[in-house]
Amino acid sequence: MRAFKRRFVFAAGVVLLVLFWAIAVGPEPPARISISPEELVRAVTIQRDSLIDLCLIEHVDPNGRDAQGRTPLLIATSQQDWKTARRLVEAGAVVDLADKNRFTPLMAAAMHGNLEIFQLLLARSTNLHAEATCTDRRDLLGVALEGENPEIVKTVVERLPLMPQWKTSTRRALTAALQAGNKDQIRSLLRKHSTPPTPEGRNVPFLAYSLAGNNSSLFSTLLGCGADPNTVLPSRCDKDFLALLPSKSLRSYVEEDRNLTVVMLAAGLGQDDYLRALLDAGANRNRLTSRDKMSALDIAAETGHWRAAQVLLGGGPSPDRLRLEISLALQR
Fold first, then answer.
1. Cα distance between residue 270 and residue 299, in whole Å
2. Is pLDDT at 319 greater than 60 in this prediction?
3. Domains of the chain with bracketed CATH
4. Most exposed of 81, 161, 290, 306 (fewest Cβ within 10 Å)?
């Protein structure tokens, strides 16, 4: 019995030795391939689909960057490689990562007018600042205007925060909306700003220009879309605006006094229909200028516009009687 046990232990030992030897001299298991995020960046840049496939299969980090700080997603959207862009988003690419110039994948999609990808990226965005600018002063709205996709432009305008001043891009958007007669977008843009819009490079608001230039279409559109009927002229008006004013006395008021409103301007121009529209929209007819304490009625009388004065009085005396009173006032 003891001899049998010794033979069994000996045989088991031999088997173990053979097994250990086989493991020691056998081939090593294949090592797992390690692919860096930079390889995915390079693959997307040169548009090598096979390498992109391999990187995504191996779950390579999709948020690597190149020397300019561009992620694979930004590179793909800039190159209009929409299929790869979608795959990268599905693989977990962060859509808000910008390059060194602060240019984002969302901007690239907007610039190329791809609504589908733009909406995909927008839905995944967690840190959107629609008003943010690149180092070259471009912003999301500006590049969307370049892409000429009205739905993208509309979406960007809706995402803008309230702003105290108009930017180049919002002025461009307003001009485009005015030209297209897009009243919804005009309303949205006016609501987004606490100051009245002015033409690019000008100080005087559009509404005042529409009065001075007798542009009834522009005036009606702006006022109907929510332009402030108490809009104030700046302390220093543009030369081309002053050149539109027909009378020297009115130009003198505009240049020398302060805080003239568009109601006063309409009264001084004798534009009765515009004046009525402003009053109907809620304009203050009793407001005074800062220096000379002139009201719209005073300016209408001083410039000899009796019909405008009658409108401001809300009826008042008959036209003949009013004309006589204004004449006597001017003589005094």
1. 10
2. no
3. 196-332 (1.25.40.20)
4. 161
